[in-house]
Amino acid sequence: MTSETGNRLVGEKSPYLLEHSRNPVDWWPWGKEAATKAKNDGKPIFLSIGYSTCHWCHVMRRESFEDPKTAAYINKRFIPVKVDREERPEVDAYYMGAVQAMTGGGGWPLSVFLTPDLKPFYGGTYFPPEPRFGMPSFMQVLEFVANLWKDKRDEVTANTEQVMKALSEQSGTIPGKPDRSALEDGFAELVSSVDQAHGGFGTAPKFPLPVSLGFLLRYHFRSRNELALRAVQKTLDEMMAGGIRDHVGGGFHRYSTDRTWLVPHFEKMLYDNALLARVYAEAYQVTGKAEYAEVVRDTLGWLAREMRSQDGGFYSAQDADTEQGEGQYYTWNPSEVADAAGEKDGRTFIRAYGVTSTGNFEGRSILHLQPGARSSDEEKRALDRAKRALYMARLERPRPATDSKVLTSWNGLAISAFAFAGGVLGDPGLTRLAGDAANFVLAKNSARGRLLRRYAAGSAGIPGTIEDYAFFVQGLIDLFESDPDPRWLEEATGLAEVMVREYEDPKDGGFFFSLEAEPARLKESYDGPTPSGNAVAAFDLLRLGELTGDVRFTKAGERTASAFAGDVSKRPSAHAQMLAAIDLLLNGRREVVITAPTLDGAAPMLRAAFKTYAPDRALLTATEETFQSLAKLSGLLEGREPGRTARGYVCRNSVCDVPAVTPDGLSEQLAR
């Protein structure tokens, strides 16, 4: 195939793969056909993994994959395979582990060379077109690997066996008994790595790590240790003032390239923003700080405006780059601010957000809130007017590309954030958006009771991974707690049953990443950019066990936590989400049941339940209309038929308080 007619990627749905469909490289999509071709031709596979908003993936495409000479060499000596890591996270995770084992580092674009039976023997990340900064050129790498394959194939085979052994050791589980020492060690590791001056963990580059922040909030809830809460607040305060936040449009960029959160890598991901909105909402529950609620609204507002399909599903990401260069869309100079906002409001905005004529990024200014800004109500109103004006002006600029594929797993995180925030902020509109996204996944990204991973270009495909099941079930549980429609709980329990039946390892415990055996069936417990699928699954199952009274779910959650207990004890801070599951397992759950004649009658009690930070609670609300349906799904309603007034029942370890008859009474019980 030629670049004029397109290569084998022209029929794919992923925007990232389609970006490469006109390359002169004769790309194959991931699958058995490419491996068969490699075996028949006796050629190694060149596997390139990236994603659509990856800056250096774009660079390598322009420099190497669009170069006819480089493409001709690849086509002659290799079978080139292109993978979207967001579509195939199990493939990415496996070969990322291989490159890390071989080189000690990793990242995207990921460049891996495989034998025809898919065993990795050489790899790296980005390679430049010419040697620089101590890196060989991409052509030098290609020639080296081609000669290695031609002249020293026995050594290649031996090398693959060493890599495979390392990968096998990494993908195994270390079972044990979950204990509280892991919680203490996780807290100690995280707090010791906090940057006391600027928040966050470690130095540059800095990632938000909302899962770690969420664990510290949970630890503070149990222990009342003020160090945990201070670490969270310092990080959230610095991020919401810094350049990593999009102060005009809402949401957060991927990470900060510096220690002070000023200069971000400008891509914006659905999962980051969903997770950050959730942890800011939790911090608002704990502290009552109004600025945290504002961040939640701004972040979810951006997702609703710019990252939502007409049918309600949420898109994956926005690029860092435009034709003008990385970050140009988000940066300003004083004259642009004045032209958009007017002289008076513009001056206020320039002063508050540090806009200067010299700038702080390539001659332009990344917005960052100055200490003491927004001190008066008048200044806040002026800044709000200026933000709206700048947002409208910014829409006239060339916009960053949006990756419009809808991933089930990341939508599960978004559903969780919107539903939880809807309850915390008392905003049913946010909860409705969560319901729309859940309906999208159930209608578009599922078939015959099974989840599919990706919806793009009008069709769904690729069997779901453990992340898809775990994250989406979490979203459904949070949605049910905020919008107590029995359907959400029914869907959550049904999908959880599929997850346990088809993904759990019956021998060693834990959940396999995917159903597919190629390249291998992985099990992961540590958190990456998103929380561990196994950890979220364990958390879901414990919550469902409490909500339904079905001990099968509880035991499955216990099995999962036990399967990875040894892994957690070795490096607890890398397992923040599993620590949250272990906390729930060891320290117990509270059942909160609200009954009322109608949903409107239950609403004040429901608001009280969400007002208080109570990460150990499972919340079920029943009305006269839903009681019979919910009684079939949950044993918590026995003897609790709705009466003429609303009641709130709080129980822990089969011991219940006197039913609360007022919202304040319920809040008081939850606050204990």
Overall description:
This protein has 672 residues and is α+β, with helices and mostly antiparallel strands. Among the domains are: 15-171, Glutaredoxin, CATH 3.40.30.10; 328-399, no CATH class; 590-670, 3-Layer(aba) Sandwich (Glutaredoxin). 51% of the residues lie in helices and 11% in strands. The chain is built from 26 helices and 18 strands. The protein has a five-stranded mixed β-sheet with strand order 1-3-2-4-5, with helices on both faces. Strands 11, 12, 13 and 14 form a four-stranded antiparallel β-sheet that branches. A four-stranded mixed β-sheet has the order 16-15-17-18, with helices on both faces. A hairpin with a 7-residue loop joins strand 6 and strand 7 (264-265). Helix 8 runs antiparallel to helix 23 and helix 20 packs antiparallel against helix 21. The longest helix has 19 residues, at 153-171. It is globular and about 80 Å long. The termini are far apart.
